[in-house]
Design a protein that fits this description.
This protein is α/β, with parallel strands linked by helices. The protein folds into 2 domains: 13-247, Type I PLP-dependent aspartate aminotransferase-like (Major domain) (Aspartate Aminotransferase, domain 2, 3-Layer(aba) Sandwich); 249-375, Aspartate Aminotransferase, domain 1 (Alpha-Beta Complex), CATH 3.90.1150. Helices cover 39% and strands 14% of the residues. Helix 4 (82-90) links the parallel strand 2 (73-77) and strand 3 (94-98). Helix 1 (13-22) packs antiparallel against helix 9 and helix 2 (31-44) packs parallel to helix 9. The radius of gyration is 21 Å and the shape is globular.
């Protein structure tokens, strides 16, 4: 049997969690939380990184920091998880969905400018499968129209665009450390702040609206309620679990890349024969092997091949139902322009098993059954 996903586990996680328990400091912002924040700041050359309870909460913080008012508009792709949209809906914004590029399934940068209105305040990009959007073009559009850019880099930890880590290019970046991600703390995430003027507000927002972060650093002799906020701090237990994996980040990354590259070589002949499409990595993009997907003819064929693979104990998954066609999408937003690719391409796509420890031999088994399905 080849599972679709196995959460990463290095071996040090339990030792670090035990340390936390023995130190009697299990709430947020303890030593391991600070170590995780510093690791990201140093590795990705980020101005400020704050660990959060989830990728969703990181997005919610980013949306609140954008200072949106009711009626303001946010441009984003429809091909994404609901968290991307929910964050801005909760902040009071109207959603404007854009079509995707069929090669990367990222927002089509050539469609963004036409979607801008006097009410537009934010462009939210999603780096699907850990492969970067065309950020030079998107940042140029944003600066031209005085818009903020939020990077949903939930799938993009350890990926880069022209040498810059995903999440560090826009005004804010958001990571996820859910159990399905390359690095996991069960539930968790991080907010990347790339403009120093937002750091103090972000710390207050994250700490229930107080300046407790300043107090812990000895900058004030007591802390008090300064502004609106919530509790976005993860448990120190989760941070300890994550830090063990950050210490082995390159090992995990290389393992996943080996599996991704094996799939790419093993399935290239089916692509060449026109049976499937496989991922495209544009020039200037360095990816993290978050996923390997294939696209088949249509949704009917996807259903058949997934059923066939499951019958041979190879487990796959598909996503997403485009948000603009969902009940909440119809309620909270609109699709700008023509849905040329979003729905059509999403119905063709499904994901193969991918996780730390998946071997090239495992990939050969998956490839064998895919070949058998098409070629007999």
């Amino acid at each position: 049997m080849i599972d679709f996903n196995v959460p990463p586990f290095i071996g040090k996680e339990l030792d670090y969690v035990k340390q936390v328990c023995e130190n009697h400091k299990i709430c947020g912002d303890g030593p391991f939380t600070k170590k995780c924040n510093a690791w990201f700041e140093n590795r990705f050359n980020a101005k400020k990184v704050l660990l959060t309870t989830s990728g969703t909460s990181a997005l919610e913080m980013a949306a609140l920091l954008c200072n949106l008012n009711e009626g303001d508009e946010v441009i984003l792709p429809s091909f994404t998880f609901s968290s991307t949209a929910n964050a801005f809906v909760l902040a009071g914004a109207k959603l404007v969905f854009c079509d995707v590029r069929p090669d990367t399934m990222n927002i089509d940068e050539t469609k963004i400018e036409a979607a801008i209105t006097p009410k537009t305040k934010v462009i939210c990009v999603v780096h699907y499968a850990g492969i970067a959007c065309e950020m030079d073009t998107i940042m140029a559009i944003a600066r031209k129209h005085n818009l903020l850019v939020v990077e949903d880099a939930a799938q993009g930890v350890m990926s880069s665009y022209k040498g810059k880590a995903l999440g560090t290019i826009g005004d804010f970046g958001c990571y996820s450390f859910h159990e399905t991600k390359n690095y996991s703390m069960g539930e968790g995430g991080a907010l990347v702040i790339n403009d120093e003027k937002y750091i103090e507000k972000a710390e207050i927002l994250r700490e229930k609206g107080t300046d407790r972060s300043k107090f812990l650093r000895g900058q004030v002799d007591k802390y008090t309620w300064k502004d609106y906020g919530s509790s976005y701090l993860p448990s120190e237990l989760n941070a300890a679990y994550l830090y063990a994996q950050l210490e082995a980040a390159d090992e995990i990354n290389n393992s996943r890349l080996a599996a991704w590259n094996a799939y790419y070589k093993l399935l290239a002949d089916l692509k060449d024969k026109g049976y499937i499409d496989i991922p495209v990595v544009p020039d200037g993009c360095s990816h993290n092997a978050h996923m390997f997907y294939i696209k088949v003819k249509n949704i009917a064929e996807r259903t058949k091949i997934q059923s066939y693979l499951r019958s041979n104990e190879v487990y796959t998954a598909f996503h997403y139902i485009p948000l603009h066609s969902a009940p909440a999408g119809l309620k909270f937003g609109r699709f700008d322009g023509v849905d040329e690719y979003t729905t059509k391409e999403s119905e063709r796509l499904f994901r193969l098993p991918m996780y730390y420890g998946l071997t090239p031999a495992d990939c050969e088994v998956v490839s064998h059954y895919i070949h058998k399905y098409f070629l007999g």
